[in-house]
């Protein structure tokens, strides 16, 4: 009995020393070695919980935070990273000092600078802000998705800009357009545009009914079996629209595989990219599962 008890205590001590999220594959447990790579080295928005394992409010947040990690990394694959820093670990003291952590938990959100395409590598440090809202799954999720950069262009169905934009489609800068009832750009579409930043341009056009044709330059191009929502790529060689074949537009990996297939462009970030695989390893401690593109991405 006593033996069991001592065993349990040492197990608990080991778990605490290793950090509260070290066994959670959906939350990055960051150290000074990995912090900059994960937080500042990407175009993703990152939430970081600075915590101490013994703190009651941290333990209270743990369940919601794990759920957030699962939702963001696993279910939705948003362009968001969910991370934590154990400030009780001596190794991490400089990090917690750098970000002036005074109480636990402190939840911070790091926003990437806007990438305008022309600038060379200037300052890529992210802007940080302390999250002051309610510490629930939903409230934190709403806040962090509101901090995603939007690179999706919005068009009017009857405007003059869309035909030009579609006509400019080329192999260097292909264009993918979402036709949808919902005028808001979803976090998923924003995330795709971030993964393909500088490689594929994304647009959105709100429509009340399925759109059966688009003007491209000054030609009218029909779309077979138009639906709503509908994700299309204009193929300038065949002069036709290619449609994402899935019934639902909620699986980012599947959509990205299709985008890469029809545009020939690989994403710079996300699960199909080299960087995405590196981050997966840091987050889970395991090698990323092979994708349909093999390992050369
Ligand atoms: C953001 O994406 C652009 C285009 O891929 C890239 O040049 C830039 O380095 C990225 N920024 C960061 C911080 O990784």
From TrEMBL:
<feature type="signal peptide">
    <location>
        <begin position="1"/>
        <end position="18"/>
    </location>
</feature>
<dbReference type="Pfam" id="PF00085">
    <property type="entry name" value="Thioredoxin"/>
</dbReference>
<dbReference type="GO" id="GO:0005788">
    <property type="term" value="C:endoplasmic reticulum lumen"/>
</dbReference>
<dbReference type="InterPro" id="IPR013766">
    <property type="entry name" value="Thioredoxin_domain"/>
</dbReference>
<keyword id="KW-0732">Signal</keyword>
<dbReference type="InterPro" id="IPR036249">
    <property type="entry name" value="Thioredoxin-like_sf"/>
</dbReference>
<dbReference type="GO" id="GO:0015035">
    <property type="term" value="F:protein-disulfide reductase activity"/>
</dbReference>
<dbReference type="InterPro" id="IPR017937">
    <property type="entry name" value="Thioredoxin_CS"/>
</dbReference>
<dbReference type="GO" id="GO:0034976">
    <property type="term" value="P:response to endoplasmic reticulum stress"/>
</dbReference>
<feature type="domain" description="Thioredoxin">
    <location>
        <begin position="7"/>
        <end position="149"/>
    </location>
</feature>
<protein>
    <recommendedName>
        <fullName>Thioredoxin domain-containing protein</fullName>
    </recommendedName>
</protein>
């Amino acid at each position: 009995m006593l033996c069991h008890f001592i065993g349990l205590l040492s197990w608990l001590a080991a778990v605490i020393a290793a950090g509260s999220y070290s066994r959670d594959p959906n939350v990055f447990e960051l150290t000074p070695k990995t912090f900059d790579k994960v937080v500042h080295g990407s175009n993703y928005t990152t939430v970081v919980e600075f915590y101490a394992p013994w703190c009651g409010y941290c333990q209270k947040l743990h369940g919601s935070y794990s759920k957030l990690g699962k939702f963001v990394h696993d279910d939705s694959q948003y362009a968001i990273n969910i991370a934590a820093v154990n400030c009780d670990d001596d190794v991490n003291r400089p990090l917690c000092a750098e970000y002036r952590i005074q109480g636990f938990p402190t939840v911070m959100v790091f926003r990437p600078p806007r990438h305008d395409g022309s600038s060379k590598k200037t300052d890529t440090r992210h802007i940080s802000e302390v999250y002051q809202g309610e510490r629930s799954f939903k409230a934190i999720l709403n806040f962090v998705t509101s901090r995603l950069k939007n690179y999706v262009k919005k068009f009017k169905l009857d405007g003059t800009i869309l035909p030009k934009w579609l006509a400019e489609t080329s192999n260097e800068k292909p264009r993918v357009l979402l036709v949808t009832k919902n005028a808001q750009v979803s976090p998923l579409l924003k995330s795709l545009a971030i993964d393909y930043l500088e490689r594929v341009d994304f647009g959105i056009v709100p429509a009340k009914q399925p759109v059966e044709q688009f003007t491209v330059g000054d030609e009218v191009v029909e779309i077979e079996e138009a639906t709503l929502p509908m994700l299309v790529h204009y193929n300038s060689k065949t002069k036709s629209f290619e449609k994402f074949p899935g019934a639902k537009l909620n699986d980012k990996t599947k959509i990205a595989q299709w985008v890469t297939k029809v545009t020939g462009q690989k994403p710079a970030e996300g699960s199909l990219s080299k960087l995405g695989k590196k981050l997966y390893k840091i987050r889970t401690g395991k090698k990323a599962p092979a994708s349909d593109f093999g390992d050369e991405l």
